[in-house]
Specification:
Largest interface: A-D, 29 and 29 residues
Number of domains of chain A: 1
Oligomer: homotetramer
Shape of chain A: globular
Order of helices and strands of chain A: HHHHHHHHHH
Number of strands of chain A: 0
Mean pLDDT of chain A: 89
CATH class of chain A: Mainly Alpha
Protein backbone atom coordinates (compact mmCIF):
# COMPACT_ATOMS: atom_id res chain seq x y z
CA UNK A 1 0.00 0.00 0.00
CA UNK A 2 2.98 2.31 0.55
CA UNK A 3 3.55 2.53 -3.20
CA UNK A 4 -0.08 3.51 -3.81
CA UNK A 5 0.25 6.30 -1.25
CA UNK A 6 3.54 7.60 -2.67
CA UNK A 7 2.10 7.65 -6.20
CA UNK A 8 -1.01 9.43 -4.99
CA UNK A 9 1.02 12.09 -3.21
CA UNK A 10 3.06 12.64 -6.37
CA UNK A 11 -0.07 12.93 -8.51
CA UNK A 12 -1.27 15.66 -6.15
CA UNK A 13 2.02 17.52 -6.46
CA UNK A 14 3.99 16.32 -3.43
CA UNK A 15 7.30 14.47 -3.61
CA UNK A 16 9.06 12.82 -0.68
CA UNK A 17 11.97 15.26 -1.08
CA UNK A 18 9.55 18.21 -0.78
CA UNK A 19 8.54 16.93 2.64
CA UNK A 20 12.11 16.02 3.57
CA UNK A 21 13.20 19.62 2.93
CA UNK A 22 10.67 20.82 5.48
CA UNK A 23 11.95 18.22 7.94
CA UNK A 24 15.51 19.47 7.45
CA UNK A 25 14.35 23.02 8.12
CA UNK A 26 12.47 21.93 11.26
CA UNK A 27 15.58 20.15 12.57
CA UNK A 28 17.44 23.38 11.76
CA UNK A 29 20.40 23.86 14.08
CA UNK A 30 21.05 20.12 14.20
CA UNK A 31 22.00 20.16 10.51
CA UNK A 32 20.45 16.83 9.58
CA UNK A 33 21.45 15.53 6.11
CA UNK A 34 18.63 15.46 3.56
CA UNK A 35 19.00 11.70 3.05
CA UNK A 36 18.30 11.10 6.75
CA UNK A 37 15.18 13.28 6.43
CA UNK A 38 14.08 11.36 3.34
CA UNK A 39 14.43 8.06 5.20
CA UNK A 40 12.43 9.44 8.11
CA UNK A 41 9.61 10.66 5.84
CA UNK A 42 9.49 7.25 4.16
CA UNK A 43 9.29 5.49 7.50
CA UNK A 44 6.36 7.69 8.55
CA UNK A 45 4.56 7.06 5.25
CA UNK A 46 5.20 3.34 5.78
CA UNK A 47 2.98 3.31 8.87
CA UNK A 48 -0.46 1.92 8.23
CA UNK A 49 -2.32 4.60 10.20
CA UNK A 50 -0.53 7.33 8.27
CA UNK A 51 -1.47 5.67 4.99
CA UNK A 52 -5.13 5.50 5.97
CA UNK A 53 -5.21 9.17 6.92
CA UNK A 54 -3.50 10.17 3.66
CA UNK A 55 -5.83 8.04 1.48
CA UNK A 56 -8.89 9.45 3.23
CA UNK A 57 -7.82 13.10 3.16
CA UNK A 58 -6.80 13.10 -0.49
CA UNK A 59 -10.03 11.31 -1.45
CA UNK A 60 -12.00 14.11 0.23
CA UNK A 61 -9.92 16.79 -1.53
CA UNK A 62 -10.46 15.19 -4.95
CA UNK A 63 -14.18 14.65 -4.35
CA UNK A 64 -14.62 18.30 -3.32
CA UNK A 65 -12.72 19.37 -6.45
CA UNK A 66 -15.27 17.46 -8.57
CA UNK A 67 -18.21 18.64 -6.44
CA UNK A 68 -18.74 15.01 -5.46
CA UNK A 69 -19.43 15.57 -1.75
CA UNK A 70 -22.90 16.29 -0.39
CA UNK A 71 -23.63 19.88 0.64
CA UNK A 72 -22.91 21.71 2.88
CA UNK A 73 -19.74 19.61 3.24
CA UNK A 74 -18.58 20.18 -0.33
CA UNK A 75 -18.58 23.97 0.08
CA UNK A 76 -16.84 23.77 3.47
CA UNK A 77 -14.00 21.62 2.11
CA UNK A 78 -13.69 23.61 -1.16
CA UNK A 79 -13.16 26.90 0.62
CA UNK A 80 -10.89 25.37 3.29
CA UNK A 81 -13.00 26.89 6.07
CA UNK A 82 -10.76 27.80 9.03
CA UNK A 83 -13.20 26.28 11.54
CA UNK A 84 -13.65 22.98 9.68
CA UNK A 85 -11.15 21.15 11.90
CA UNK A 86 -11.34 17.65 10.40
CA UNK A 87 -8.25 18.28 8.27
CA UNK A 88 -6.18 19.06 11.38
CA UNK A 89 -7.60 16.02 13.19
CA UNK A 90 -6.56 13.62 10.41
CA UNK A 91 -3.07 15.14 10.22
CA UNK A 92 -2.61 14.93 13.98
CA UNK A 93 -3.37 11.23 13.83
CA UNK A 94 -0.08 10.97 11.93
CA UNK A 95 1.95 13.31 14.14
CA UNK A 96 0.80 11.58 17.33
CA UNK A 97 2.46 8.35 16.17
CA UNK A 98 5.77 9.89 17.20
CA UNK A 99 4.58 11.41 20.45
CA UNK A 100 3.55 14.83 21.57
CA UNK A 101 6.82 16.58 20.73
CA UNK A 102 5.80 16.74 17.08
CA UNK A 103 2.64 18.71 17.84
CA UNK A 104 4.55 21.94 18.22
CA UNK A 105 6.15 21.59 14.79
CA UNK A 106 2.78 20.72 13.27
CA UNK A 107 1.19 23.91 14.58
CA UNK A 108 4.16 25.96 13.49
CA UNK A 109 4.08 24.55 9.95
CA UNK A 110 0.35 25.08 9.72
CA UNK A 111 0.81 28.78 10.46
CA UNK A 112 4.07 29.43 8.60
CA UNK A 113 3.37 27.21 5.57
CA UNK A 114 6.98 26.40 4.72
CA UNK A 115 7.97 25.06 1.29
CA UNK A 116 5.48 22.83 -0.51
CA UNK A 117 2.84 23.52 2.16
CA UNK A 118 2.71 27.16 1.05
CA UNK A 119 2.35 26.11 -2.58
CA UNK A 120 -0.50 23.71 -1.80
CA UNK A 121 -2.20 26.40 0.21
CA UNK A 122 -2.09 29.01 -2.54
CA UNK A 123 -5.33 27.67 -4.07
CA UNK A 124 -4.11 28.08 -7.60
CA UNK A 125 -5.54 26.34 -10.62
CA UNK A 126 -8.81 25.25 -9.06
CA UNK A 127 -7.27 22.40 -7.11
CA UNK A 128 -8.49 21.67 -3.59
CA UNK A 129 -5.78 20.86 -1.04
CA UNK A 130 -7.73 21.40 2.19
CA UNK A 131 -6.52 18.09 3.61
CA UNK A 132 -3.23 17.69 1.76
CA UNK A 133 -1.47 20.76 3.17
CA UNK A 134 -2.26 19.61 6.71
CA UNK A 135 -1.31 16.01 5.94
CA UNK A 136 2.09 17.14 4.64
CA UNK A 137 2.59 19.25 7.78
CA UNK A 138 1.62 16.24 9.90
CA UNK A 139 4.04 13.92 8.07
CA UNK A 140 6.89 16.45 8.28
CA UNK A 141 6.29 17.07 11.99
CA UNK A 142 6.24 13.32 12.67
CA UNK A 143 9.41 12.74 10.66
CA UNK A 144 11.21 15.56 12.51
CA UNK A 145 10.10 14.17 15.88
CA UNK A 146 11.40 10.75 14.81
CA UNK A 147 14.79 12.21 13.89
CA UNK A 148 14.97 13.98 17.27
CA UNK A 149 14.11 10.79 19.15
CA UNK A 150 16.66 8.75 17.19
CA UNK A 151 19.44 11.31 17.66
CA UNK A 152 18.75 11.57 21.40
CA UNK A 153 19.07 7.84 21.88
CA UNK A 154 22.52 7.22 20.45
CA UNK A 155 24.05 5.36 23.40
CA UNK A 156 24.37 1.59 23.31
CA UNK A 157 21.79 1.01 26.03
CA UNK A 158 19.58 3.97 25.18
CA UNK A 159 15.87 3.73 24.44
CA UNK A 160 16.54 3.88 20.68
CA UNK A 161 17.37 0.19 20.71
CA UNK A 162 13.86 -0.64 21.79
CA UNK A 163 12.38 2.04 19.54
CA UNK A 164 14.29 0.59 16.60
CA UNK A 165 12.67 -2.76 17.09
CA UNK A 166 9.22 -1.33 17.74
CA UNK B 1 -26.53 23.53 10.22
CA UNK B 2 -27.73 21.64 13.30
CA UNK B 3 -31.01 20.80 11.50
CA UNK B 4 -29.13 19.41 8.51
CA UNK B 5 -27.09 17.18 10.81
CA UNK B 6 -30.12 15.93 12.76
CA UNK B 7 -31.97 15.11 9.53
CA UNK B 8 -28.95 13.32 8.14
CA UNK B 9 -28.58 11.21 11.30
CA UNK B 10 -32.26 10.27 11.08
CA UNK B 11 -31.96 9.31 7.40
CA UNK B 12 -29.12 6.98 8.40
CA UNK B 13 -31.26 5.38 11.10
CA UNK B 14 -30.22 7.29 14.25
CA UNK B 15 -32.59 9.35 16.39
CA UNK B 16 -31.54 11.66 19.21
CA UNK B 17 -33.43 9.46 21.67
CA UNK B 18 -31.45 6.41 20.51
CA UNK B 19 -28.26 8.21 21.53
CA UNK B 20 -29.84 9.58 24.72
CA UNK B 21 -30.69 6.03 25.83
CA UNK B 22 -27.02 5.10 25.61
CA UNK B 23 -26.14 8.20 27.62
CA UNK B 24 -28.61 7.20 30.32
CA UNK B 25 -27.05 3.75 30.47
CA UNK B 26 -23.53 5.22 30.69
CA UNK B 27 -24.62 7.47 33.57
CA UNK B 28 -26.07 4.32 35.13
CA UNK B 29 -26.07 4.55 38.90
CA UNK B 30 -26.74 8.30 38.80
CA UNK B 31 -30.18 7.65 37.34
CA UNK B 32 -30.26 10.61 34.96
CA UNK B 33 -33.71 11.33 33.42
CA UNK B 34 -33.94 10.70 29.68
CA UNK B 35 -34.91 14.33 29.00
CA UNK B 36 -31.66 15.51 30.54
CA UNK B 37 -29.77 13.05 28.33
CA UNK B 38 -31.66 14.27 25.26
CA UNK B 39 -30.72 17.87 26.05
CA UNK B 40 -27.09 16.89 26.50
CA UNK B 41 -27.00 15.03 23.16
CA UNK B 42 -28.55 18.03 21.42
CA UNK B 43 -25.98 20.36 22.96
CA UNK B 44 -23.15 18.14 21.72
CA UNK B 45 -24.65 18.01 18.21
CA UNK B 46 -24.98 21.80 18.37
CA UNK B 47 -21.20 22.20 18.47
CA UNK B 48 -19.69 23.14 15.14
CA UNK B 49 -16.74 20.71 15.37
CA UNK B 50 -19.11 17.84 16.11
CA UNK B 51 -21.23 18.77 13.10
CA UNK B 52 -18.20 18.80 10.81
CA UNK B 53 -17.08 15.37 12.00
CA UNK B 54 -20.61 13.95 11.54
CA UNK B 55 -21.04 15.43 8.04
CA UNK B 56 -17.65 14.09 6.96
CA UNK B 57 -18.04 10.62 8.42
CA UNK B 58 -21.51 10.03 7.02
CA UNK B 59 -20.41 11.32 3.59
CA UNK B 60 -17.63 8.72 3.59
CA UNK B 61 -20.06 5.95 4.64
CA UNK B 62 -22.53 6.85 1.87
CA UNK B 63 -19.80 7.15 -0.76
CA UNK B 64 -18.40 3.73 0.18
CA UNK B 65 -21.92 2.28 -0.03
CA UNK B 66 -22.14 3.53 -3.64
CA UNK B 67 -18.56 2.50 -4.43
CA UNK B 68 -17.79 6.19 -4.92
CA UNK B 69 -14.43 6.26 -3.11
CA UNK B 70 -11.14 5.49 -4.87
CA UNK B 71 -9.56 2.10 -4.17
CA UNK B 72 -8.09 0.79 -1.93
CA UNK B 73 -9.98 3.19 0.37
CA UNK B 74 -13.44 2.08 -0.77
CA UNK B 75 -12.78 -1.55 0.17
CA UNK B 76 -11.24 -0.59 3.52
CA UNK B 77 -14.26 1.52 4.52
CA UNK B 78 -16.79 -1.01 3.16
CA UNK B 79 -15.45 -3.85 5.23
CA UNK B 80 -14.91 -1.65 8.33
CA UNK B 81 -11.31 -2.84 8.64
CA UNK B 82 -10.32 -2.97 12.32
CA UNK B 83 -6.99 -1.24 11.67
CA UNK B 84 -8.46 1.61 9.60
CA UNK B 85 -8.45 4.03 12.54
CA UNK B 86 -9.81 7.16 10.84
CA UNK B 87 -13.33 6.42 12.08
CA UNK B 88 -12.11 6.42 15.71
CA UNK B 89 -10.10 9.59 15.14
CA UNK B 90 -13.13 11.52 13.85
CA UNK B 91 -15.31 10.31 16.72
CA UNK B 92 -12.68 11.24 19.30
CA UNK B 93 -12.67 14.78 17.95
CA UNK B 94 -16.22 14.97 19.32
CA UNK B 95 -15.54 13.26 22.65
CA UNK B 96 -12.49 15.44 23.36
CA UNK B 97 -14.71 18.54 23.36
CA UNK B 98 -15.83 17.51 26.84
CA UNK B 99 -12.43 16.52 28.12
CA UNK B 100 -10.61 13.28 28.65
CA UNK B 101 -13.15 11.71 31.01
CA UNK B 102 -15.34 10.79 28.03
CA UNK B 103 -12.61 8.73 26.40
CA UNK B 104 -13.21 5.80 28.69
CA UNK B 105 -16.88 5.65 27.81
CA UNK B 106 -16.07 5.93 24.13
CA UNK B 107 -13.78 2.92 24.24
CA UNK B 108 -16.28 0.96 26.28
CA UNK B 109 -19.11 1.68 23.84
CA UNK B 110 -16.92 0.80 20.90
CA UNK B 111 -16.32 -2.65 22.39
CA UNK B 112 -19.73 -3.33 23.91
CA UNK B 113 -21.84 -1.77 21.14
CA UNK B 114 -24.83 -0.84 23.29
CA UNK B 115 -28.22 -0.07 21.76
CA UNK B 116 -28.30 1.58 18.34
CA UNK B 117 -24.50 1.16 18.01
CA UNK B 118 -24.95 -2.61 17.89
CA UNK B 119 -27.66 -2.28 15.25
CA UNK B 120 -25.49 -0.04 13.07
CA UNK B 121 -22.62 -2.46 13.44
CA UNK B 122 -24.61 -5.51 12.35
CA UNK B 123 -23.89 -4.77 8.66
CA UNK B 124 -27.38 -5.73 7.56
CA UNK B 125 -29.01 -4.67 4.32
CA UNK B 126 -25.85 -3.61 2.51
CA UNK B 127 -25.55 -0.34 4.37
CA UNK B 128 -22.11 0.92 5.40
CA UNK B 129 -21.87 2.43 8.89
CA UNK B 130 -18.11 2.30 9.42
CA UNK B 131 -18.04 5.91 10.60
CA UNK B 132 -21.57 6.25 11.98
CA UNK B 133 -21.29 3.67 14.75
CA UNK B 134 -18.15 5.37 16.06
CA UNK B 135 -19.66 8.83 15.69
CA UNK B 136 -22.69 7.78 17.75
CA UNK B 137 -20.36 6.34 20.41
CA UNK B 138 -18.38 9.60 20.38
CA UNK B 139 -21.52 11.74 20.75
CA UNK B 140 -22.89 9.55 23.56
CA UNK B 141 -19.57 9.58 25.42
CA UNK B 142 -19.34 13.38 25.10
CA UNK B 143 -22.93 13.85 26.27
CA UNK B 144 -22.36 11.59 29.28
CA UNK B 145 -19.17 13.48 30.19
CA UNK B 146 -21.11 16.73 29.94
CA UNK B 147 -23.82 15.42 32.31
CA UNK B 148 -21.13 14.33 34.78
CA UNK B 149 -19.42 17.73 34.68
CA UNK B 150 -22.71 19.59 35.11
CA UNK B 151 -23.84 17.41 38.01
CA UNK B 152 -20.49 17.80 39.76
CA UNK B 153 -20.66 21.56 39.60
CA UNK B 154 -23.97 22.24 41.28
CA UNK B 155 -22.84 24.84 43.80
CA UNK B 156 -23.52 28.52 43.12
CA UNK B 157 -19.86 29.41 42.67
CA UNK B 158 -18.81 26.14 41.10
CA UNK B 159 -17.10 25.78 37.74
CA UNK B 160 -20.40 24.99 36.04
CA UNK B 161 -21.28 28.67 36.00
CA UNK B 162 -18.28 29.36 33.82
CA UNK B 163 -18.89 26.23 31.80
CA UNK B 164 -22.47 27.29 31.24
CA UNK B 165 -21.33 30.54 29.66
CA UNK B 166 -18.55 28.95 27.63
CA UNK C 1 -11.58 26.30 42.57
CA UNK C 2 -11.25 28.95 39.85
CA UNK C 3 -10.01 31.47 42.43
CA UNK C 4 -7.33 29.05 43.65
CA UNK C 5 -6.12 28.58 40.08
CA UNK C 6 -6.07 32.30 39.30
CA UNK C 7 -4.12 33.03 42.50
CA UNK C 8 -1.66 30.27 41.73
CA UNK C 9 -1.07 31.57 38.21
CA UNK C 10 -0.44 35.04 39.62
CA UNK C 11 2.01 33.70 42.21
CA UNK C 12 3.94 32.08 39.37
CA UNK C 13 4.05 35.36 37.44
CA UNK C 14 1.09 35.06 35.05
CA UNK C 15 -1.88 37.44 35.02
CA UNK C 16 -5.07 36.93 33.03
CA UNK C 17 -4.28 40.06 31.00
CA UNK C 18 -0.88 38.61 30.05
CA UNK C 19 -2.66 35.66 28.48
CA UNK C 20 -5.38 37.87 26.97
CA UNK C 21 -2.72 39.91 25.16
CA UNK C 22 -1.48 36.75 23.46
CA UNK C 23 -5.06 35.88 22.49
CA UNK C 24 -5.50 39.33 20.93
CA UNK C 25 -2.31 38.84 18.93
CA UNK C 26 -3.46 35.38 17.77
CA UNK C 27 -6.79 36.82 16.62
CA UNK C 28 -4.73 39.46 14.84
CA UNK C 29 -6.53 40.74 11.77
CA UNK C 30 -9.92 40.39 13.43
CA UNK C 31 -9.02 43.12 15.90
CA UNK C 32 -10.69 41.61 18.94
CA UNK C 33 -10.96 43.99 21.95
CA UNK C 34 -8.83 43.04 24.95
CA UNK C 35 -11.89 42.77 27.22
CA UNK C 36 -13.35 40.07 24.95
CA UNK C 37 -10.03 38.21 25.14
CA UNK C 38 -9.99 38.54 28.94
CA UNK C 39 -13.49 37.07 29.15
CA UNK C 40 -12.51 34.20 26.89
CA UNK C 41 -9.40 33.40 28.98
CA UNK C 42 -11.52 33.45 32.14
CA UNK C 43 -14.05 31.09 30.59
CA UNK C 44 -11.29 28.64 29.65
CA UNK C 45 -9.81 28.80 33.17
CA UNK C 46 -13.32 28.20 34.52
CA UNK C 47 -13.41 24.72 32.96
CA UNK C 48 -12.72 21.95 35.43
CA UNK C 49 -10.38 19.97 33.14
CA UNK C 50 -8.31 23.09 32.51
CA UNK C 51 -8.06 23.71 36.25
CA UNK C 52 -6.87 20.16 36.89
CA UNK C 53 -4.17 20.43 34.22
CA UNK C 54 -2.99 23.80 35.59
CA UNK C 55 -2.88 22.58 39.21
CA UNK C 56 -0.94 19.47 38.20
CA UNK C 57 1.55 21.21 35.92
CA UNK C 58 2.39 24.00 38.36
CA UNK C 59 2.75 21.47 41.20
CA UNK C 60 5.34 19.60 39.11
CA UNK C 61 7.19 22.84 38.29
CA UNK C 62 7.35 23.87 41.95
CA UNK C 63 8.41 20.40 43.11
CA UNK C 64 11.21 20.33 40.51
CA UNK C 65 12.32 23.78 41.67
CA UNK C 66 12.71 22.41 45.21
CA UNK C 67 14.26 19.13 44.00
CA UNK C 68 11.20 17.37 45.38
CA UNK C 69 10.65 14.96 42.49
CA UNK C 70 12.35 11.55 42.30
CA UNK C 71 15.25 11.21 39.85
CA UNK C 72 15.61 11.01 36.90
CA UNK C 73 12.31 12.93 36.62
CA UNK C 74 13.51 15.93 38.63
CA UNK C 75 16.45 16.56 36.29
CA UNK C 76 14.28 16.10 33.18
CA UNK C 77 11.71 18.66 34.37
CA UNK C 78 14.36 21.12 35.69
CA UNK C 79 16.16 21.33 32.37
CA UNK C 80 12.91 21.40 30.35
CA UNK C 81 14.11 18.55 28.15
CA UNK C 82 12.76 18.96 24.61
CA UNK C 83 11.75 15.29 24.35
CA UNK C 84 9.95 15.19 27.72
CA UNK C 85 6.51 15.63 26.10
CA UNK C 86 4.30 15.48 29.20
CA UNK C 87 4.15 19.28 29.39
CA UNK C 88 2.74 19.47 25.86
CA UNK C 89 0.26 16.66 26.60
CA UNK C 90 -1.17 18.46 29.64
CA UNK C 91 -1.47 21.74 27.73
CA UNK C 92 -3.20 20.05 24.81
CA UNK C 93 -5.81 18.70 27.18
CA UNK C 94 -6.85 22.33 27.61
CA UNK C 95 -6.66 23.32 23.94
CA UNK C 96 -8.67 20.28 22.83
CA UNK C 97 -11.65 21.52 24.85
CA UNK C 98 -12.29 24.01 22.06
CA UNK C 99 -11.66 21.66 19.19
CA UNK C 100 -8.81 20.99 16.85
CA UNK C 101 -8.60 24.51 15.40
CA UNK C 102 -6.70 25.66 18.48
CA UNK C 103 -3.91 23.11 17.97
CA UNK C 104 -2.29 25.19 15.27
CA UNK C 105 -2.09 28.25 17.51
CA UNK C 106 -0.71 26.13 20.33
CA UNK C 107 2.15 24.84 18.20
CA UNK C 108 2.84 28.33 16.88
CA UNK C 109 2.99 29.83 20.38
CA UNK C 110 5.21 27.03 21.59
CA UNK C 111 7.76 27.85 18.88
CA UNK C 112 7.46 31.64 18.82
CA UNK C 113 7.04 32.19 22.57
CA UNK C 114 5.02 35.41 22.36
CA UNK C 115 4.71 37.75 25.35
CA UNK C 116 4.67 36.19 28.81
CA UNK C 117 5.50 32.75 27.34
CA UNK C 118 8.91 34.06 26.30
CA UNK C 119 9.51 35.48 29.75
CA UNK C 120 8.58 32.20 31.45
CA UNK C 121 10.83 30.34 29.07
CA UNK C 122 13.89 32.50 29.74
CA UNK C 123 14.83 30.37 32.77
CA UNK C 124 15.87 33.36 34.84
CA UNK C 125 16.20 33.41 38.59
CA UNK C 126 16.23 29.67 39.14
CA UNK C 127 12.52 29.24 38.62
CA UNK C 128 11.23 26.20 36.75
CA UNK C 129 8.41 26.85 34.26
CA UNK C 130 8.61 23.68 32.19
CA UNK C 131 4.86 23.14 32.45
CA UNK C 132 3.68 26.72 32.91
CA UNK C 133 4.87 28.10 29.57
CA UNK C 134 3.04 25.29 27.75
CA UNK C 135 -0.06 25.67 29.93
CA UNK C 136 -0.23 29.39 29.12
CA UNK C 137 0.14 28.59 25.40
CA UNK C 138 -2.64 25.99 25.73
CA UNK C 139 -4.98 28.41 27.52
CA UNK C 140 -4.30 31.19 24.99
CA UNK C 141 -4.84 28.85 22.03
CA UNK C 142 -8.11 27.59 23.53
CA UNK C 143 -9.33 31.13 24.25
CA UNK C 144 -8.51 32.24 20.69
CA UNK C 145 -10.34 29.22 19.24
CA UNK C 146 -13.32 30.08 21.43
CA UNK C 147 -13.38 33.67 20.13
CA UNK C 148 -13.21 32.39 16.54
CA UNK C 149 -16.10 29.98 17.10
CA UNK C 150 -18.23 32.63 18.79
CA UNK C 151 -17.60 35.22 16.06
CA UNK C 152 -18.40 32.72 13.31
CA UNK C 153 -21.78 31.91 14.82
CA UNK C 154 -23.31 35.38 15.07
CA UNK C 155 -26.66 34.66 13.42
CA UNK C 156 -29.75 34.14 15.58
CA UNK C 157 -30.07 30.47 14.72
CA UNK C 158 -26.36 29.76 14.37
CA UNK C 159 -24.54 27.06 16.29
CA UNK C 160 -23.36 29.62 18.88
CA UNK C 161 -26.74 29.42 20.55
CA UNK C 162 -26.19 25.78 21.36
CA UNK C 163 -22.55 26.40 22.18
CA UNK C 164 -23.60 29.18 24.55
CA UNK C 165 -25.74 26.80 26.54
CA UNK C 166 -23.24 23.96 26.46
CA UNK D 1 16.14 4.54 31.56
CA UNK D 2 14.07 1.49 30.68
CA UNK D 3 15.52 -0.39 33.66
CA UNK D 4 14.60 2.44 36.02
CA UNK D 5 11.03 2.34 34.73
CA UNK D 6 10.73 -1.44 35.00
CA UNK D 7 12.06 -1.39 38.57
CA UNK D 8 9.70 1.42 39.51
CA UNK D 9 6.70 -0.48 38.10
CA UNK D 10 7.70 -3.55 40.07
CA UNK D 11 8.09 -1.55 43.30
CA UNK D 12 4.53 -0.31 42.78
CA UNK D 13 3.26 -3.87 42.32
CA UNK D 14 3.22 -4.28 38.53
CA UNK D 15 5.23 -6.89 36.65
CA UNK D 16 5.62 -7.04 32.88
CA UNK D 17 3.83 -10.39 32.83
CA UNK D 18 0.84 -8.84 34.66
CA UNK D 19 0.48 -6.39 31.77
CA UNK D 20 1.18 -9.07 29.16
CA UNK D 21 -1.70 -11.17 30.52
CA UNK D 22 -4.08 -8.28 29.88
CA UNK D 23 -2.67 -7.94 26.36
CA UNK D 24 -3.31 -11.63 25.72
CA UNK D 25 -6.89 -11.21 26.91
CA UNK D 26 -7.40 -8.14 24.68
CA UNK D 27 -6.09 -10.07 21.65
CA UNK D 28 -8.51 -12.81 22.69
CA UNK D 29 -9.69 -14.78 19.66
CA UNK D 30 -6.29 -14.42 17.96
CA UNK D 31 -4.71 -16.57 20.66
CA UNK D 32 -1.45 -14.70 20.92
CA UNK D 33 1.28 -16.51 22.94
CA UNK D 34 2.21 -14.83 26.22
CA UNK D 35 5.86 -14.43 25.15
CA UNK D 36 4.76 -12.34 22.16
CA UNK D 37 2.68 -10.17 24.51
CA UNK D 38 5.64 -9.79 26.88
CA UNK D 39 7.85 -8.64 24.01
CA UNK D 40 5.22 -6.15 22.90
CA UNK D 41 4.86 -4.71 26.42
CA UNK D 42 8.63 -4.36 26.68
CA UNK D 43 8.79 -2.56 23.35
CA UNK D 44 6.12 -0.09 24.48
CA UNK D 45 7.95 0.54 27.77
CA UNK D 46 11.13 1.06 25.74
CA UNK D 47 9.67 4.16 24.10
CA UNK D 48 10.92 7.39 25.60
CA UNK D 49 7.51 9.11 25.67
CA UNK D 50 6.00 6.13 27.48
CA UNK D 51 8.81 6.24 30.05
CA UNK D 52 8.25 9.94 30.71
CA UNK D 53 4.53 9.44 31.24
CA UNK D 54 5.15 6.50 33.61
CA UNK D 55 7.80 8.35 35.64
CA UNK D 56 5.53 11.39 35.97
CA UNK D 57 2.37 9.50 36.87
CA UNK D 58 3.99 7.29 39.49
CA UNK D 59 5.76 10.33 41.02
CA UNK D 60 2.36 12.01 41.44
CA UNK D 61 0.86 8.83 42.98
CA UNK D 62 3.70 8.51 45.49
CA UNK D 63 3.63 12.22 46.37
CA UNK D 64 -0.12 12.07 46.99
CA UNK D 65 0.39 8.99 49.17
CA UNK D 66 2.79 11.02 51.36
CA UNK D 67 0.60 14.13 51.23
CA UNK D 68 3.40 15.85 49.36
CA UNK D 69 1.27 17.63 46.75
CA UNK D 70 -0.24 21.08 47.35
CA UNK D 71 -3.97 21.21 48.05
CA UNK D 72 -6.52 20.91 46.54
CA UNK D 73 -4.52 18.69 44.15
CA UNK D 74 -3.42 16.23 46.84
CA UNK D 75 -7.01 15.44 47.83
CA UNK D 76 -8.13 15.11 44.20
CA UNK D 77 -5.38 12.60 43.39
CA UNK D 78 -5.78 10.70 46.68
CA UNK D 79 -9.44 10.03 46.14
CA UNK D 80 -9.00 9.30 42.39
CA UNK D 81 -11.73 11.80 41.52
CA UNK D 82 -13.61 10.61 38.41
CA UNK D 83 -13.51 14.06 36.80
CA UNK D 84 -9.78 14.62 37.38
CA UNK D 85 -8.87 13.60 33.83
CA UNK D 86 -5.09 14.11 33.93
CA UNK D 87 -4.51 10.41 34.63
CA UNK D 88 -6.36 9.45 31.44
CA UNK D 89 -4.50 12.11 29.45
CA UNK D 90 -1.08 10.78 30.48
CA UNK D 91 -2.08 7.20 29.69
CA UNK D 92 -3.44 8.15 26.30
CA UNK D 93 -0.11 9.70 25.44
CA UNK D 94 1.21 6.12 25.55
CA UNK D 95 -1.67 4.49 23.66
CA UNK D 96 -1.55 7.09 20.88
CA UNK D 97 1.98 5.98 20.00
CA UNK D 98 0.43 2.97 18.28
CA UNK D 99 -2.40 4.84 16.61
CA UNK D 100 -6.06 5.30 17.30
CA UNK D 101 -7.00 1.62 17.25
CA UNK D 102 -5.69 1.22 20.80
CA UNK D 103 -8.05 3.85 22.19
CA UNK D 104 -10.96 1.46 22.20
CA UNK D 105 -9.09 -1.10 24.27
CA UNK D 106 -7.92 1.62 26.65
CA UNK D 107 -11.47 2.74 27.36
CA UNK D 108 -12.63 -0.84 27.73
CA UNK D 109 -9.86 -1.67 30.23
CA UNK D 110 -10.54 1.49 32.18
CA UNK D 111 -14.15 0.40 32.68
CA UNK D 112 -13.67 -3.35 33.09
CA UNK D 113 -10.45 -3.22 35.13
CA UNK D 114 -9.09 -6.60 34.05
CA UNK D 115 -6.35 -8.36 36.02
CA UNK D 116 -3.77 -6.21 37.78
CA UNK D 117 -5.74 -3.04 36.90
CA UNK D 118 -8.55 -4.20 39.16
CA UNK D 119 -6.11 -4.90 41.98
CA UNK D 120 -4.50 -1.47 41.69
CA UNK D 121 -7.92 0.11 41.66
CA UNK D 122 -9.10 -1.60 44.84
CA UNK D 123 -7.50 1.10 47.01
CA UNK D 124 -6.25 -1.35 49.59
CA UNK D 125 -3.54 -0.69 52.10
CA UNK D 126 -3.50 3.09 51.80
CA UNK D 127 -1.63 3.08 48.51
CA UNK D 128 -2.55 5.60 45.83
CA UNK D 129 -2.68 4.27 42.26
CA UNK D 130 -4.70 7.03 40.59
CA UNK D 131 -2.22 7.26 37.72
CA UNK D 132 -0.81 3.73 37.74
CA UNK D 133 -4.03 1.89 36.90
CA UNK D 134 -4.56 4.13 33.87
CA UNK D 135 -0.91 3.87 32.84
CA UNK D 136 -1.10 0.07 32.90
CA UNK D 137 -4.29 0.21 30.81
CA UNK D 138 -2.54 2.57 28.38
CA UNK D 139 0.52 0.31 28.07
CA UNK D 140 -1.64 -2.81 27.58
CA UNK D 141 -3.81 -1.10 24.95
CA UNK D 142 -0.71 0.11 23.08
CA UNK D 143 0.92 -3.33 23.22
CA UNK D 144 -2.26 -5.00 21.91
CA UNK D 145 -2.52 -2.47 19.07
CA UNK D 146 1.12 -3.18 18.22
CA UNK D 147 0.45 -6.93 18.06
CA UNK D 148 -2.56 -6.32 15.79
CA UNK D 149 -0.54 -4.11 13.44
CA UNK D 150 2.32 -6.60 13.29
CA UNK D 151 0.03 -9.58 12.63
CA UNK D 152 -1.83 -7.69 9.88
CA UNK D 153 1.37 -6.93 8.01
CA UNK D 154 2.81 -10.39 7.60
CA UNK D 155 3.50 -10.28 3.86
CA UNK D 156 7.04 -9.66 2.61
CA UNK D 157 6.25 -6.22 1.19
CA UNK D 158 3.65 -5.23 3.74
CA UNK D 159 3.79 -2.08 5.85
CA UNK D 160 5.25 -4.01 8.78
CA UNK D 161 8.67 -3.86 7.17
CA UNK D 162 8.67 -0.10 7.48
CA UNK D 163 7.06 -0.25 10.89
CA UNK D 164 9.74 -2.65 12.00
CA UNK D 165 12.45 -0.18 11.10
CA UNK D 166 10.62 2.85 12.44
Amino acid sequence: MKDVVLRLLEERGVKVTDIAQIVAELCGPDDVPLEECVRSVETVIGKREAQHAILTGIALDVLAERNGLPEPLNAIVRRDEPLYGVDEILALGITNLYGSVGLTSFGYLDKRKLGIIGKLNSHRSGQVHTFLDDLVAGIAAAAAARVAHQRAGVGPSGPDRQAASG
